[in-house]
Each structure stands twice: as C-alpha cells, then as structure tokens.
C-alpha cells in the first residue's frame, strides 16, 4: 500500500479492522488514530513507548491492515507531513502579542490558539464527498433524531432547531421526561440518528446507537476520536477536535461541523426547503416574534 491519503486509507482501515485486533493491538491502533502526526516522525520503538505497548505490537498491527511492516505503514504518514506542512507566521506573532497583553493574556492566547487549531484539525480530516453522503442520508430520510447529553445536548438541540426551520420531522432526543431509547422505539431503516458524544463517552448514547443499528437506522456519529465507539458503529462518522486548556471539551469545532453539515443538507435538498425557510421567517415576522419588517 503506497497511497498517501492517510485519513481515508490507513486510518479508515484501522477502524474497519478494529474488532479483529487484539486488545494490545487496539491500544496501538487507538494511539495512531488519535495521534496520526506522531507516526510520521516516530520510530517503532518511540511510538510503542508512547502507546505503552511492545514494538512488535505495532509491527503485527501494521501487517494486519495490509502493510509489510511498520516502516511501510509509516511511509504514507511521512509523505502527508511532507506535502501538508503549513506555517502561519502572522498568526504566531499575533498570539505572541496576546500573551504579552496582561495577566490573562496567556489564557486568552491559549484559548484562541486552541479554537483555531480545533477547526483546522477537524476540517482537514473531512472532505466534501463524506459530508454530501451524510447530507443525502438526512434529506432522504423519513425522520431525523439528534442525540446529545450533557454539554452535547445543547449542540444537538441547536442543530435540530436550525434544521427545523426548513425541515419537518426533526427531533432532539432525549425528550423531556423520556430516554433516548424510548424516543427511538418506533424508528427503523427509514430514519437517521445523529449521535454526539466526546470523552468520557456517555453510556446512554452508546447504547442508543447500538439499538438504533439493530433497528436499521442510518447512524451519523460525531465524536472526538476515530476509536470512539459511536464512530466505529456509524455508517457516517466525523471526528472533531475538542482540545482546550480548560477542563471542559471545546464545542467550537463541533458547532462548525454541524453548521457545515446543515449547509450541505440544504444544498442537496429540493427547492421546497428554501420556500419553507422563507415561510417560517415570514410567519415569525407576522406574529411579532421578530422586530421590524421582513427583509
């Protein structure tokens, strides 16, 4: 294998072979999935230490996914680094200036840098074809359920709210006083579940995805690692970067991805969705919900 498209060849192959890997090989695969940039610059011994496995584990893992050995496995990652290196000197100087701007300048710079990096890392790993495939599944479905709990609940409900201005049968779950499993009781192969969870992964989301798959739903999984259980169970999986200097996961890239996915749904939809959105907002003006005249 000598394809340099690491994201869609090597990493996808690792997730496809996940269940067939030994527990130790899964540890090695998880490290690669979550730290692909390290592969291109690390020897087999160095990366084995970082992943807390033996070097032979990486060799066996590489062979299992179609390579002759670790060096052959590492080659596409090195090529990707060589072709994709980008520097941002102006941004670096700007961030340095922020750090000098007072007692909280360092925190401000760290948060800004983290948000920008999360967006770049997220969209660098996603292409338009994958977004279109997920958007087609959403538009052609009977019902769409968006599932997020904890901090992800707000992200799921925001996406549902925006989508509902132009589409019917969009449901944020769990509903008040319900559970996600109950809300999916009558869903089937005609429906889509968009499931969202980041580490530490919520068990109710994982269980809902499992049951949804049994019932035949199309799963769109959004999480922070290719090794996430909902990504591995999804027909359409998207990994978002959620790193932050603070204790809570960042939602910047998550919101960016959801907004982009929704824009793709609108792009692949029939013309009626535009009429629906216009009708929705015109009605709000008529009811006095918006201030001023419609534009």
Q: How would you sum up this structure in a few lines?
A:
With 295 residues, the protein is of the alpha/beta class. The protein has helices at residues 10-16, 23-34, 36-39, 44-51, 55-64, 70-84, 89-99, 105-124, 128-139, 151-164, 180-183, 203-214, 229-232, 252-268, 272-286; strands spanning 144-147, 170-173, 192-196, 218-223, 236-239.
Description:
By secondary structure, the chain is an alpha/beta fold. It is built from 15 helices and 5 strands. Strands 2-1-3-4-5 form a 5-stranded parallel β-sheet, with helices on both faces. β1 (144-147), α10 and β2 (170-173) form a beta-alpha-beta unit. The N and C termini lie far apart (55 Å). α4 (44-51) packs across α5, α7 (89-99) runs antiparallel to α8 and α10 (151-164) packs parallel to α14 (252-268). It folds into 3 domains: 10-84, Arc Repressor Mutant, subunit A; 89-124; 128-285, Rossmann fold (3-Layer(aba) Sandwich). The radius of gyration is 22 Å and the shape is globular. Residues 134-279 form the SIS domain. InterPro entries: Homeodomain-like_sf, HTH_RpiR, RpiR-like, RpiR-like_SIS, SIS_dom, SIS_dom_sf, WH-like_DNA-bd_sf. Residues 8-84 form the HTH rpiR-type domain. It holds the Pfam family SIS.
């Amino acid at each position: 294998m000598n394809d340099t498209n690491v994201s869609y060849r090597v990493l996808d192959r690792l997730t496809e072979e996940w269940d067939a890997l030994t527990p130790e090989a899964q540890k090695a695969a998880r490290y690669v999935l979550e730290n692909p940039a390290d592969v291109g610059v690390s020897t087999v011994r160095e990366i084995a230490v970082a992943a807390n496995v033996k070097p032979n584990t990486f060799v066996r893992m590489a062979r299992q996914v179609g390579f002759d050995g670790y060096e052959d496995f590492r080659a596409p990652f090195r090529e990707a680094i060589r072709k994709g290196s980008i520097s941002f000197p102006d941004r670096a100087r700007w961030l340095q200036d922020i750090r000098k701007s007072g007692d909280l300048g360092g925190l401000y710079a760290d948060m800004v840098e983290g948000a920008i990096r999360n967006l770049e890392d997220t969209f660098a790993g996603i292409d338009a074809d994958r977004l279109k495939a997920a958007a087609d599944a959403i538009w052609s479905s009977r019902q769409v359920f968006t599932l997020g709990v904890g901090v992800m609940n707000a992200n799921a409900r925001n996406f549902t709210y925006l989508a509902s201005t132009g589409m019917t049968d969009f449901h944020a779950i769990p509903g008040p006083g319900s559970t996600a499993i109950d809300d999916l009781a009558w869903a089937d192969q005609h429906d889509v579940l968009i499931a969202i969870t980041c580490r530490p992964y919520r068990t109710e989301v994982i269980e809902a995805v499992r049951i949804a798959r049994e019932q035949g739903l199309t799963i769109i999984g959004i999480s922070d690692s290719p090794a996430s259980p909902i990504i591995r169970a999804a027909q359409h999986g998207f990994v978002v970067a959620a790193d932050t200097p603070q204790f809570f996961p960042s939602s910047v890239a998550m919101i960016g991805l959801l907004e982009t996915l929704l824009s793709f749904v609108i792009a692949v939809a029939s013309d009626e969705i535009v009429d629906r959105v216009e009708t929705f907002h015109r009605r709000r003006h008529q009811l006095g919900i918006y201030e001023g005249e419609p534009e």
